Amino acid sequence: MKATLRYLAGLAGPSGFGSNSTAEQVTEDCCSLLPSNLTALITGATSGIGAETARVLAKRGVRVVIGARDLRKAKEVREKIQKESPHAEVILLEIDLSSFASVQRFCSEFLALELPLNILINNAGMYSQNLEFSEEKIEMTFATNYLGHFLLTKMLLEKIIDTAKKTGIQGRIINVSSVIHSWVKRSCFSFNDMLCGKNYNGTRAYAQSKLATILHVKEVARQLKERNANVTINAVHPGIVKTGIIRAHKGLITDSLFFIASKLLKSISQGASTTCYVALSGQTDGMSGKYFTDCNESNCSSLANDESEARKLWNDTHALLHKRLRQATN
């Protein structure tokens, strides 16, 4: 109840920021302290909080690489960014996160640029009311929101670790999750069922994919600590934001309820604040395996905190990718 009241009132937490804080506000003080030549890679930055994250990071002098399925939209975002920040460096690369082949191709193209990689923001997400499948015959929401980002992170992890080692600047990985991860019951969280979309329900599939992104954070954080790597990984809940995903949900509730709920929604700038805070703030140095809401560390569900579940999911995912990628090369 206290957290809800704090959210509604926009009260600041220990970080000095709260639900009303915008992405520009949370990065304003740290921009003068940022190292030069930082490079951030952001997926799904053609609209919504992804585009706002890209804009604000570029405004703070960060080189931004946008991974996008729609390059036409990505070019429009780049034009807007460079109109506001003429010296901003924005690089566009095509990626379809639901396709393993596309993720592999994207990583090859990015690594060929021989750029450093300081920040990886796994932001892209989709919601589908209807059961759809990727080209690998995997349920589309799970393939896009979780599996694609898992593979992307896996293929770029050594680059992030190496950049941190060479520069002495801590690398940061951020998975954009959602508070609705807490809706998932342990009995409904089955890897094989999620792959095939068994008893499909769009909201449940979305919640499951967002739970998986937090469990991914927990296990990778453990592995990074074990390696003594100077890289952190955290999950963020942006808040309930006025984006395309919310519009996709609208058909599930009455217009009157949507009108009431819309008054509690964050703006896109407020929604991008937690991602930008965790990406750039000195206050998050050394913090890893955490879950952030409204620019403050928060609590995720007990299932999302289950280390054995996180390790099991990582092992199942790694085995699946190894099998599918090996088949693709034969």
The helical percent reads: 40-55%
Low-confidence stretches: none
Give the N-to-C terminal Cα separation: 55 Å
What is the count of helical runs?
Answer: 13
Q: Strand count, sense and closure of the main sheet?
A: 8 strands, mixed
Strand order of the largest sheet: 3-2-1-4-5-6-7-8
Alpha-beta content class? alpha/beta
According to DSSP, the number of beta strands is 8
Order of helices and strands: HHEHEHEHEHEHHEHHHHEEH
User: How is the CATH topology named?
Assistant: Rossmann fold
**Percent of residues in beta strands?**
5-15%
Shape: globular
Give a short synopsis of this structure:
Keywords: Oxidoreductase. It is built from 13 helices and 8 strands.
Explained architecture:
With 330 residues, the protein is of the alpha/beta class. The chain has a single domain (16-238, 268-323), classed as NAD(P)-binding Rossmann-like Domain (Rossmann fold), CATH 3.40.50. It is 49% helix and 12% strand. An 8-stranded mixed beta sheet has the order 3-2-1-4-5-6-7-8, with helices on both faces. Helix 3 links the parallel strand 1 (39-43) and strand 2. Helix 5 packs parallel to helix 6, helix 6 runs parallel beside helix 8 (202-227) and helix 8 packs across helix 13 (307-329). The termini are far apart.
What brief labels describe this structure?
alpha/beta; Rossmann fold; 8 strands; 49% helix; SDR_fam; oxidoreductase; Short-chain dehydrogenase TIC 32, chloroplastic isoform A; NAD(P)-bd_dom_sf
